[in-house]
Structures are given as structure tokens and as C-alpha cells.
């Protein structure tokens, strides 16, 4: 649920998501709470997930990853964006622990509709390679 990767580094990501009618998380012409959390999760996981791929693997075919939200430490949802809106999500890595093929991490994330903060959350993830 990311339409565009605006920027990414080892510690930060900035994404955009265009909300369309075919999105399974659209209910009553708005992106649901679950959809907002899924958008945050997919945006956040890109920070750590990128380290499992070679720099020139732009299609993501070199590895297969599975990521799980292991904990929602905090989530505040202030409003639901409307169908056809484009939301912006920015996330920052708080902590990371690598154990072989598994990474555990905590990430702070904020989502905006135009310049209005609509979601603030902190999520923990387990990310690992699969054969």
C-alpha cells in the first residue's frame, strides 16, 4: 500500500499512497483505520527491508522477505482520509537488532493528509528472509 517511494535512507523513509476505489481497506469512501496501519507498516518495513537486497535489484526479485508487526506500541488516528486522496507517510528507525536472517526493529511513523497529521504510531517488526 505504497504508490510511490519518495525517499529512503538507512534510517528514514518517505512514501505516498493514492487511495483508490479498488483498495480493500476503503469503507464508506474513506481509508479505514486498518488501512492506515497497513500503509504505515509497509512504509516502515522498507527501511529495514532494503538491507536484504542488492543495490541494483530494483525489481526486488533477488530475495523473498516476510515481515510481521510484532507489536503496536502506540497508535493514534486523528482522521480518516477520503477516497482519491494521496497520503504521505514518514518513518524513522528507532532501534534495530539483527540476528542472522532475522531483524527486530522499532519504528516511529507519521502519516499526513495534505499537511494535517492523521496518524502517529510506533510499530515493532520482525523481518526475515524466506527460502
Number of extended strands: 8
Please provide the ordered H/E string of secondary-structure elements: EEEEHEEEE
Computed Rg = 15 Å
* Uncertain spans: none
Count the DSSP helices: 1
The order of strands across the largest sheet is 1-2-6-7-8-5
Q: What is the beta-strand fraction? A: over 45%
Overall form: globular
Mean pLDDT: 92
Note the gap between the termini: 24 Å
Q: Major sheet: size, sense and barrel closure?
A: 6 strands, antiparallel
Roughly how much helix do the residues carry, as a percent range? 10-25%
Helix-and-strand structural type: mainly beta
Task: Please describe what this structure looks like.
It is built from one helix and eight strands, in the order ββββαββββ. The chain has one helix spanning 33-49; strands spanning 4-8, 12-18, 26-27, 30-31, 65-77, 86-99, 102-113, 116-129. Strand 3 (26-27) and strand 4 form a beta hairpin.
Write the layout of secondary structure elements.
Blueprint: E1 4-8, E2 12-18, E3 26-27, E4 30-31, H1 33-49, E5 65-77, E6 86-99, E7 102-113, E8 116-129
Antiparallel strand pairs: 1-2, 2-6, 3-4, 5-8, 6-7, 7-8
Features of this protein?
mainly beta, two-stranded antiparallel ribbon, 131 residues, six-stranded antiparallel beta sheet, 53% strand
Condensed summary:
The protein is mainly beta and 131 residues long.
